[in-house]
Amino acid sequence: MSTVLIIFFILSAVTLATAFLTVFTKNPIHSAIYLVLCFFSVAGHYLLFNAQFLAVVHVIVYSGAIMILFLFTVMLMNLNKEDEVHKPRTTRLAAGIIFILTCLVLLAIFIQTKPIVGPYDDTGVDYQSIKVLGNVLLNEYMVPFEFASVLLLVGMIGAVLLSKREKTEKK
Amino acid sequence: MDQAIILEKSIFIFTIFAITMLAAMYSTWAERKVAAWLQDRIGPNRAGPLGLLQPLADGMKLFSKEEFLPNTPNKFLFVAGPAISMSVALMTSAVIPWGDKLIIGGRTVILQATDINIGVLYVFGVLSVGVYGIMIGGWASNNKFSLMSAMRAASQMISYEVAMGMSLIALLMMSGDLSLKTISEQQAEWHWNVLYQPLGFIIFLVCSFAETNRTPFDLAECEAELIGGYHTEYSSMRMGFYLFAEYASMFISSTILAVLYFGAYNYPGMAWAVEHWGVNAANGIGIAVLFIKICAFIFFFMWVRWTIPRFRYDQLMRLGWQGLIPLAIANIFITGVIILWHDGKLF
Amino acid sequence: MSVQTMSLSGRKKEVSNKKMTFWESLYLVAIVKGLFITIGHLFTRKVTVKYPEEVRTRAGIWRGQHMLKRDEQGRENCTACGLCALSCPAEAITMTAAERKPDEKHLYREEKYASVYEINMLRCIFCGLCEEACPKDAIYLTESKVLVPASYDREDFIFGKDKLVMPLEMAMANAKNRQN
């Protein structure tokens, strides 16, 4: 077994274990911390693909920004078991049905897939360099890139609007 | 050959580690000395000549203190907090070029632990993880005041990370590369980035003050008034780790400031020195020059600390979001226009 | 002159709540100004006195540890009248009087003397009222030029005659000086 394979197995085990723990832990803060660990191990997977840029950006964005804000809210909300909102039965039923459907779709996809066996194309371009990456993003994938930025802008405006409305209501 | 590289890198990493620890240790001594000098006092002068053994005495004291564990349900996280802070503070030094190269016994030794081509991003990734040490420690203390000041520290660090990243983008637009090695090579002789990016440098400097939780942005700790903020419940060497991590990260951010904006190991006349005195001598001077720059920045950090009172929380947030971020965006815009104009692509 | 415009110190400044401009709200200019003030202090004379090695000069009337004086012939002045104990605002002084035996004439000047004389240094406030009250010139705070030393036990702060009475050599030296 090669070193990469061993690392892959360890990383996968960590990823899966922390992902399951995220779901099953009772304490919301512990589950958030498990999610952080999960993200780190996913960054490790990226590193195995030799995608350093992606790995580091993943750490910065997910572990460094989003999860910290998440932890922030969870810590301040002081979620306890007592004040957990009781969910109505219809919601639970809907959630269950959606979960089963998603599982079916995923299973169908996995059954349909065929592993592609073949050599990788050697383009001779170093996709680790931000120059190349920037060129690709802003030439080849211009439209999706811009769409993503519009999406982020909408999200930002939404956040601002939400926080503003609360202020006027209080007055 | 392979083993030689491993040996060389291990020795190098060990040296960097030792230097970082030593620098952090003596930063505590320097902090007290500088504070004393700026206040017309002498400072520690009893432990050894000039008080040079003071850090050892402090360390001995911290080690011999009782290790108090508060009644918290999260004992593991309580211990993990300072550990994360400390390891994160020491991780950054992996990508920093401490010098160009030395030739030892016919082998070219690159004075950098690893040259990954996303060096700057790596530094940012590690910095953003550093917040966890504070947050987890503050939360696991099971003390609402610790939690609140951990929140303050974390929100401050997140806010200033944004402005820090934006101020760096302008620099990266000029360098066109994320590798710290390349960035330092581009600043050969007198082409230091601070001359091309003065505004970006100031923003980066202010943000690094906020990132290291130092005055005027130390309101998360307020050493005297809030009994240490997020490390209120910590004692003995666990608290020592938090304090030590603060000084280690001060050393590291001084290094990054020197590497990114003040020409790293470059000094005017380096090419001449390589030609006349040989590679080793020229690079030896280069390493010394880098350390002089780092020391100057550390002194600056301390100088500011003993000059400025701390900001109020709303002032801190206003400065970050309404002052530095717009300035950083303006800086990006101006830099872009100038680059295009320089390339003749503007009109 | 109205109260609003008056300034006794000449350094009065009007407080204003004017809104800061964008540039001012960055605090950069103010910070640079402050930095120049502090760096100036780096080069000023340090005021620290390295105490045990180097003692700051004290005034001639500086009041330190008490001293029970002897006269030129080396006899104790104190007659145990108790006026010092009476005048002491901190009630730090106690004493026991005794009658002088004929063979002790060279030791005590008066017929009555203090066989025990104790000052509790934890109570004493070094005001010097005992010195003023003494009719026999027996107790002085300005003579010893000694700080009352620190100690670990409360008992150690009750100073008896062994610590308070002027040493004989000092009395001899004084007498010699008087003759010259």
Description:
- The complex is a heterotrimer of chains A (171), B (347) and C (180).
- Chain A has 171 residues and is mostly helical.
- Chain A has helices at residues 3-24, 28-48, 52-77, 89-112, 130-140, 142-170.
- The radius of gyration of chain A is 21 Å and the shape is globular.
- Chain A starts with a helix and ends with a helix.
- Chain B has one domain (66-343).
- Chain B has a two-stranded antiparallel ribbon with strand order 1-2.
- In chain B, helix 1 (2-38) runs parallel beside helix 11 (279-305) and helix 5 (144-175) packs parallel to helix 12 (313-343).
- In chain C, 24% of the residues lie in helices and 12% in strands.
- In chain C, the strands form 2 sheets. In chain C, strands 2-3-5 form a 3-stranded antiparallel β-sheet. A two-stranded antiparallel sheet of chain C has the order 1-4.
- Chains in contact: A-B, B-C.
- The interface between A and B is medium-sized, with 22 and 26 residues.
- Chain A: Belongs to the complex I subunit 6 family.
- Chain A: Its main location: membrane.
- Chain A: Its EC number is 7.1.1.-.
- Chain A: Keywords: Cell membrane, Membrane, NAD, Quinone, Transmembrane, Transmembrane helix.
What descriptors fit this protein?
heterotrimer, B: 347 residues, 68% helix, C: 180 residues, alpha+beta, three-stranded antiparallel β-sheet, two-stranded antiparallel sheet, 12% strand, elongated
Write the layout of secondary structure elements.
The complex is a heterotrimer of chains A (171), B (347) and C (180).
Chain A: H1 3-24, H2 28-48, H3 52-77, H4 89-112, H5 130-140, H6 142-170
Helix pairs in contact in A: 1-2, 2-3
Chain B: H1 2-38, H2 54-64, H3 75-91, E1 101-104, E2 107-110, H4 119-140, H5 144-175, H6 180-186, H7 193-196, H8 198-211, H9 236-261, H10 270-277, H11 279-305, H12 313-343
Antiparallel strand pairs in B: 1-2
Chain C: H1 22-25, H2 28-41, E1 67-68, H3 83-87, E2 93-99, E3 112-120, H4 129-133, E4 139-140, E5 158-159, H5 161-164, H6 168-179
Antiparallel strand pairs in C: 1-4, 2-3, 3-5
